[in-house]
Design brief:
homodimer, alpha+beta, Arc Repressor Mutant, subunit A, Dna Ligase, domain 1, 2 domains, three-stranded mixed sheet, two-stranded antiparallel ribbon, 6 helices, 5 strands, DNA-binding
Chain lengths: ~160, ~160
DNA sequence: AACGATAGTGTTATGATATAACATATTTAA
DNA sequence: TTAAATATGTTATATCATAACACTATCGTT
């Protein structure tokens, strides 16, 4: 039962409303189970991260917040740190940006496939990628603490669009 | 003939002089073959990156340069960009830092295993990791352009030291 | 050797990303 | 209801990176 997940870029092709609602429900669940508070601010920032199904940068979040009144960087970064600690979002190191996680209940660090064209991304947790890395590490006694795996390129849709031009 | 490379953390256990000399020789070769100039400045910065066998940040390089006189950030970043373009060094995204590459002749993007304790690192180019990722991508028609694979943790030596304390 | 073209470097200013430190407000739990 | 703990606001500043333009060195011709 460890079938590899398929990459599905869902940009524009789904019921965003319910997708978002599900994410929020999961987040609330995770917070509750860890005795953490999903405050109004944290929820707002979580929503902004999820909103577009693509990586968003801290200062873009800040810009959005400032449309409702004053806000400063620490407000954003603190919320992002909180959400990351709980695994509700992930940081994309190579882009200084953040994405929502759709499997926050499981502890994991995903593998991210991100389209350079449209920004759509997919998070995998592939057994074969994970174990290839683990094996390399075990081989020499390296003890893994954190995995950063970020693959950028062109998603199937954008590839299609390009061809037909 | 695709035996996996082993992780070897060479910190402190090698002839640094000749290790460095080899790296410089390779770099000169690569530059020559691509009709690029390995200028005094570029060489100096290349040496600083190699010097410690661990990731070094741009402003730390800048500090070193400034001991020989004035220098400003663009001087450093330009040289780093040049060296990266030729594959003579790599950027570690998750640390905003740079490391020397010991196989610059081959075009590749490595997998980095970096010790959180001592900073030692190893660059692999593992067939099994690479193909696991390629397979995941091909599965759905994602066209890979760039791979960022950075694994942090504790190297065998530091693990040993900790145990014996 | 003299020349213009190209490539490389210096310099100043500023943009982009992130955090420290402390003040204030809110929630929790006794 | 109150003290402790948690969360947020606010100001200042650290850290990372690049744009734009001036100047210098090198290369390839004549």
């Amino acid at each position: 039962m460890s079938a590899e997940q398929n990459i599905i870029f869902c940009r524009d092709h789904h019921d965003h409303q319910s997708c978002m609602a599900t994410a929020i429900a999961k987040a609330e669940q995770v917070c509750e189970s860890r005795n953490q508070r999903f405050t109004k601010l944290r929820k707002r920032i979580f929503e902004l991260v999820w909103q577009q199904h693509k990586p968003i940068r801290a200062y873009d979040i800040l810009d959005q917040l400032q449309q409702d009144g004053r806000a400063a960087p620490p407000t954003v970064y603190r919320a992002l740190d909180f959400l990351m600690d709980l695994g509700l979002i992930h940081r994309i190191e190579s882009m200084n940006a953040f994405v929502g996680c759709n499997n926050p209940q499981q502890k994991h660090e995903g593998q991210f496939f991100i389209c350079n064209d449209c920004g759509a991304f997919v998070e995998l947790d592939s057994t074969s990628i994970n174990s290839a890395i683990s094996i390399s590490a075990e081989h020499s006694g390296f003890e893994i603490q954190q995995r950063t795996i970020e693959i950028t390129g062109i998603c199937p849709e954008c590839k299609g669009k390009k061809k037909s031009q």
